[in-house]
Design brief:
heterodimer; A: 112 residues; mainly beta; seven-stranded mixed beta sheet; four-stranded antiparallel beta sheet; globular; B: 111 residues; six-stranded mixed beta sheet; five-stranded antiparallel beta sheet; 53% strand
Chain lengths: 112, 111
């Protein structure tokens, strides 16, 4: 069966520090991968998605970047965090969009 | 045209009552309509989904009603329970494309 892993679960980082969040999927190959951000009590904002290794599409220009160095690994990064980067970050995967998204358990990021 | 409009933003229901959440879309090319349930601090989980070739799909206490001509679909939760208290998101997509999510509905079911 397929599983998706996200870590860390929680993170407190100072303003101006770098960020690296990792997401990996097991049990499938060539998944579509997504990064979402959810502000407190708000909806799901799509940040990046990838349909293959090295292929990244950005939905919202901002202080973040994404990379897909391996087929089942998706990384969200920032060189210098801003207070506005705080939120709940979710990784998701789907196989060709046929069966809908499966979300990871999320990372709660607080920038202080 | 890519938006999915969801209402209400929040909903309070008595235990045993029916919870109804509505969504509307504009893009007639959408052919996949899932609902996601999210508990606090957790990622959303797929609850139920429907394709436009049927008008209704039922799974336990959860039913999706789909009106293709009106471009609307809704989630009905029968016999709502306190454990159903969560945020619900509707979504839509064309096959193989990214999902467009609604803005979410926070449901609170009181005993």
């Amino acid at each position: 069966s397929q599983t998706i892993h996200q870590w860390p679960a929680t993170l407190v980082q100072p303003v101006g520090s770098p960020l690296s969040l990792e997401c990996t999927v097991e049990g499938t190959s060539n998944p579509n991968l997504y990064w979402y951000r959810q502000a407190a009590g708000r909806g799901l904002q799509l940040l990046f998605y990838s349909v293959g290794i090295g292929q990244i599409s950005s939905e919202v220009p901002q202080n973040l970047s994404a990379s897909r160095p391996q087929d089942r690994q998706f990384i969200l990064s920032s060189k210098k965090l801003l207070l506005s980067d705080s939120g709940f970050y979710l990784c998701a995967w789907t196989f060709g969009g046929i069966y809908g998204y499966t979300f990871g358990s999320g990372t709660r990021l607080t920038v202080v | 045209q890519q938006q999915v409009k969801q209402s209400p933003q929040s909903l309070i229901v008595q235990k045993g009552g029916i919870s109804i959440i509505n969504c509307a879309y504009e893009n007639t090319a959408f052919d996949y309509f899932p609902w996601y349930q999210q508990f606090p601090g957790k990622g959303p989980a797929l609850l139920i989904a429907i394709r436009p070739d049927v008008s209704e799909k039922k799974e336990g206490r959860f039913t999706i009603s789909f009106n293709k001509s009106a471009k609307q679909f809704s989630l009905h939760i029968m016999d709502s329970q306190p454990g159903d208290s969560a945020t619900y998101f509707c979504a839509a997509s064309t096959m193989g494309d990214k999902l467009i999510f609604g803005t979410g509905t926070r449901l609170q079911v009181f005993p």
